[in-house]
Amino acid sequence: MKYESKIIESIDYLLQQERKSTLVLIRDRVRFIRLLKSGEARTQSAASEAIGLCERQSQRLWRVYQQEGLGGLQKKPAWGYWGKLSSAQIAQLRQFLMDDQAETLADIQTYLKNNLGISYTIGGISDLCKCLKIKLKTGRPVNVRQQPGAVEEFKKKSKN
């Protein structure tokens, strides 16, 4: 396949776009097209190997380029997807958790179902908590023989 004729952008323009991109993902996508255009890589496999992609990814990149052009490859990825929740709902969930109203994943599941009308499985709730970096908060263990208020008394005495 003659990639030189199928890729309409010039090598200089592709190199300029490659250097200008701040995201590594986009830079590699543009480099993939530049390698094909310049002839440094004669096949998609060779171009993908040069930038560390597998063959299937290179096929996907070439298809996107053919359908949408270079602009399609330079689109920023849609990161920040939290499943079924909007950002406002995530804020409500975080507030619910800050108020210490949930002790288990089942409590979070019930809250989402009753208040926001969104149903998740327990596994889905677990994955959501991992994505949102919500961790279980537990207090430090206390010795069973410790007298109530003994810590405060010790701190008061040590200040004097």
From TrEMBL:
| Residues annotated as signal peptide | none
State the superkingdom: Bacteria
**SUPFAM superfamilies (alphabetical):** Homeodomain-like
Where in the numbering of this chain does the Insertion element IS150 protein InsJ-like helix-turn-helix domain appear?
A: 29-79
Which residues does the UniProt record annotate as the domain Winged helix-turn helix?
A: 101-158
Name the record gives this protein? Winged helix-turn-helix domain-containing protein
